[in-house]
């Protein structure tokens, strides 16, 4: 089975060099670029477009830490299932509630919102480090799926704060 990693010629790891990812995407995209198929048959053009779409989908998934971690879990037959499985450890739930309360308190105060955003970004980095250990070294996909759900929440509140600051 071709994975997004093999499609781009990359190791199937959570820890990815994003520069290497972009280079691999550019090379793969160049191989199926429509200009290369200008004189090809309609069927060949259609196949090239399908490959281009798959390459772009691979790049979109692998460049995003949440999507990349969830994809690695899925490859190992562990679904993150964030819509139905909202179980998280109590310490993280408390942290979520605290962030939400803090956001309510600092809404409209850009300097304080940036402080909160920085704290949440540190949590994201911690979770990404944890996911590197769980996915790339320990191969503990069950615990990684839980950490992915946590990272999804962190990304959501980060995006919310960034949109309020924009």
From TrEMBL:
Single annotated GO MF: transferase activity
Record bears the keyword Transferase: yes
J domain location: 3-75
A cellular-component GO term for this protein: iron-sulfur cluster transfer complex
Signal peptide feature range: none
Pfam families xref list: DnaJ, HSCB_C
Biological processes, Gene Ontology terms: [2Fe-2S] cluster assembly; protein complex oligomerization; protein folding
InterPro entries, per the entry: DnaJ_domain (IPR001623), HscB (IPR004640), HscB_C_sf (IPR036386), HscB_oligo_C (IPR009073), J_dom_sf (IPR036869)
Keywords linked to the UniProt accession: Chaperone, Transferase
Domain of life: Bacteria
NCBIfam families referenced in this protein's UniProt entry, alphabetically: hscB, PRK03578.1
Function according to Swiss-Prot or TrEMBL: Co-chaperone involved in the maturation of iron-sulfur cluster-containing proteins. Seems to help targeting proteins to be folded toward HscA.
Subunit structure: Interacts with HscA and stimulates its ATPase activity.
Family to which this protein belongs: Belongs to the HscB family.
HAMAP family: HscB (MF_00682)
Protein name per Swiss-Prot or TrEMBL: Co-chaperone protein HscB homolog
Lineage of source species: Bacteria, Pseudomonadati, Pseudomonadota, Betaproteobacteria, Burkholderiales
Gene for this chain: hscB
């Amino acid at each position: 089975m071709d994975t997004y990693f093999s499609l781009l010629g990359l190791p199937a790891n959570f820890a990815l060099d994003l520069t290497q990812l972009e280079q691999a995407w550019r090379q793969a995209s160049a191989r199926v670029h429509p200009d290369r198929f200008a004189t090809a048959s309609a069927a060949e053009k259609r196949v090239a477009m399908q490959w281009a779409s798959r390459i772009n989908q691979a790049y979109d998934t692998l460049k995003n830490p949440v999507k990349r971690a969830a994809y690695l879990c899925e490859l190992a037959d562990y679904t993150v299932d964030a819509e139905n499985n909202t179980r998280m450890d109590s310490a993280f739930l408390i942290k979520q509630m605290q962030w939400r309360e803090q956001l309510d308190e600092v809404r409209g105060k850009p300097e304080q919102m940036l402080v909160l955003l920085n704290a949440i970004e540190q949590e994201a980095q911690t979770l990404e480090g944890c996911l590197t250990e769980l996915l790339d070294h320990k191969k503990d996909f069950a615990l990684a799926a839980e950490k992915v759900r946590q990272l999804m929440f962190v990304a959501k509140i980060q995006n919310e704060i960034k949109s309020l600051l924009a």
